[in-house]
Amino acid sequence: MQNTISNQILHRSDLQSDHIALRHQGQCLSYAELSQRVHYYAAALRKLNLNPGEHIALHANKGIDSVCALLASLLCKLTVVPLNPLLKPAQMQHILIDAGITVLISNQAGLQHIQTCLAHCTNLKRVILSDDMAQTRPLSANQELLTWDDLSSSITDQTQSTETIEASSSQMIAMILYTSGSTGAPKGVMLSHSNLSIGATVVKDYLQLTDTDRILALLPLSFDYGLNQVLSGLLAGAEVVLMDYLLPRDVLTTLEKQAISVLAGVPSLWNPLAKLDWPKAVQQQLRIITNSGGALSDSTLARLEEQLSSDKIVLMYGLTEAFRASYLPPAEFSTHRGSIGRAIPQTELFVVKPDGEACKPGEIGELVQAGALVSLGYWNQAEATAAVFKPLPLWAQNEQNRTQLAVWSGDQVQQDEEGYLYFIGRKDAMIKSSGYRISPDEIESLACAHHLVELACALGIEDAALGQSIVLYIQTAADNELNKDLEKELKRCLPNYMQPKQIIRLQQFPMTSNAKIDRNQLHSMFCNSTKKH
Fold first, then answer.
1. Are 2 and 164 in contact (CB under 8 A)?
2. At 348, which helix (H) or strand (E)?
3. Mean pLDDT for the stretch of residues 503-507
4. What is the rounded distance in angstroms from the CA atom of residue 221 to the CA atom of residue 514?
5. Which of 38, 93, 345, 422 to pair with 434, CA 20 to 30 A apart?
6. What is the predicted pLDDT for the residue at 181?
């Protein structure tokens, strides 16, 4: 028998009942109170007589109630689909219909944002509000509007169930995480109960999270990185402080005020944050910071080292289809600069040539991942699943992985003699200009080294003479003089074939719901602007 991740977390109420589990906007919940509220929500959900595996969507800003509702849904063996509140109604509608959502958990503000699209969601039968519904407009005739209190009013037995799932059922779909949609319509990645449990345990162990840690959770629960940070933190008995990312200075203020010891981020957070002066209290209190969701530029890493020292920086790499692949421990940061590390526990990594053969050290190939964290594929997308989830090459197979599918990431990496991996770029993001294959990361890294550049994105634009020409977008509030400065620096450091044909300044980049630069939208913006001229 295997406990769900919810039961593993709720077991903490027996070990440290008075310890704070969650904190958000002045409110806090102890582990005992967390257990009580999760069981309260679970008892309410059971009143709906839902079938195991039925799809339930969670649409609300990250907060104490949304975390409790998520854990309660998993406890009831429902399939949870977290929705990022930043998505537009059309994107929400696509996910609600594609996933066949029958129950939606939201709040009044969230419901008003998407209410116009709910009439198109014919599978949706019930909407549960976490707050007062006095100001809410009625739903469609076939959709029932409820509150937690409505469901719980007649409950007499809120037995604190310790439900387990059979080992054979640990591969049931526990959660569907939808990709941001920057490469087309969002696809839902199916995670099993085993994926969630093992993923949280592995990260807790290699980051050495304990009940003395205070973790700042900035990333959305709909993002695998943000979800795992909350689950692994609670599994360790840590205090998890929930916050929606606003401005870099707000983050520094919260780090100091809440005495945070662990912070996870993505490059769009670290690039501007690294350029600020960090209070001494923050530098002393932080035990580790972690990065995933994209490579950090050399200049950003250097500034983070100045703020914290290298023994507090953990670089990680992963993708939603298999959550986490590798990490570089802080002790190895200085000796293996630029590396994304080696395979994490319960994971095997291989670097494969286009012909399926193994890459030798130093050769560039596709990263392929096998092991316990490989997800179940894409929901309702058999063709897309078959293209990404495939058997390992024969030379990589052994007794354990022979019958399992691996994730073919599409990411280009190289491996050194010691097995350390170095990220080169996305196969579909590589720029092909003048016969050269160019990684945009090299250009972006140099651009971000400039003290006035917050973010950078290099794109390949169709060009009749070159194949593709390079357009560099930079996020900055600086004036036109910056372009000349930057052009001079790029010409000094890069060969002619890597020089941008055009540098375009923006005050704000379009971002995906997972806080990554939306390359597709930038590409569309460029194409639309050229049509106008």
1. yes
2. strand 347-352
3. 91
4. 10
5. 422
6. 45
Predicted local distance difference test score (pLDDT) of residue 451: 83
Buried/exposed code over 19-36 (b: 16+ C-beta within 10 A; e: otherwise): bbbbbbeeeebbbbbbbb
Which residue do the tokens 């009831």 mark?
76
Decide: 345 and 205 in contact? Cβ < 8 Å: yes
Task: Please write down the HEC assignment for all residues of 353-387.
Answer: CCCCCECCCCCEEEEEEEECCCCCCECCCHHHHHH
Q: What is the pLDDT of residue 209?
A: 97
Residue of 263, 232, 231 whose CA lies nearest to 250: 263
Closest Cα partner for 351 from 441, 420, 428, 438?
Answer: 420
**Which residues are bridge partners to 56 per DSSP?**
80, 103
The mean pLDDT of 493-516, rounded to a whole number, is 85
pLDDT-above-90 percentage for the chain: 56
CB 169 within 8 Å of CB 14: no
Q: Are 367 and 351 in contact (CB under 8 A)?
A: yes
Indicate yes or no: pTM above 0.90.
no
Buried/exposed 186-216: b ≥16 CB within 10 Å, e otherwise = bbbbbbbbbbbbbbbbbbbebbebeeebbbb
- CA 298 vs. chain centroid, Å, equals 22
DSSP 487-526: HHHHHHHS-GGGS-SEEEEESS--B-TTS-B-HHHHHHHH
Of 381, 349, 385, the residue nearest 366 (C-alpha): 349
Residue 111 confidence (pLDDT)? 84
Is the distance from CB of 298 to CB of 338 less than 8 angstroms? yes
Whether 288 contacts 330, CB under 8 Å: yes
- pLDDT tens-digit series, residues 431-442: 878 666 687 888
Identity of the residue numbered 494 = L
